[in-house]
Amino acid sequence: MWLGMVGEKRNGSTKRDGSRRGAVVNGEDFPPMKDLIQLYRTAFLEGNDEVLGEVEKAITAVEKEKSRVASQFESITTEITSGKEKFIRLNADLENFRKQTEKERAKFTSNIRVEVVQSLLPLVDCFEKTNLENTPENEKEQKISTSYQGIYNQLVETLRYLGVGVVETVGMPFDPSVHEAISQEASMQFKAGIVMHEVRRGFHLKERLLRPATVKVSTGSGKQSGSS
């Protein structure tokens, strides 16, 4: 209505350019703000109070609509940001859960492997003790010894495949984290604090100690110190 009045005042007829579209407020189509300001300026110069009032109402309505749309846009942006943050948190929680599950699975597998290997260590001791004490005196005993030795070698290879290693002892500095000393003795061969004799072999599974090595430690060439 007001636009038609302005058009009639300026051009003598109502003329709208369909390619220039402004805001739509409550179903009414308003021209761009630039055009409204120009219409207001023209109506003011011409003293057309009726058109001035219409244009002022239109400008107010357009400004309110812009404010509403801006507020709605801000609200949507906030929701999107919040949703993104929630997604990031959920994704981080899922990744932490995956890592924790993997860690617990690896720990469980490692514990099972340790238990299996530890249950085999007495068998290793038995084989080694038999090898030391047994001296075949005839062909039959030699065959039995060879058979035992073959089984022992298979056991050793299995343990090696599982990652089992032997704790180094003789000639190494005494290390309480992997060695268990049962005595200290004088030695002309080894300096003080050096392992001079292995009583029972120690084992580790990769970096995890399965059993400390039982050893005797040298006190050097001085007096024997006895048990510790």
Automatic annotation (TrEMBL):
GO molecular function: adenyl-nucleotide exchange factor activity; protein homodimerization activity; protein-folding chaperone binding; unfolded protein binding
GO cellular component, one term: chloroplast
Keywords: Chaperone, Cytoplasm, Mitochondrion, Stress response
Localization terms from the record: Cytoplasm; Mitochondrion matrix
Known partners and oligomeric status: Homodimer.
Protein family: Belongs to the GrpE family.
Region entry Disordered, spans: 1-25
Protein name: GrpE protein homolog
Domain of life: Eukaryota
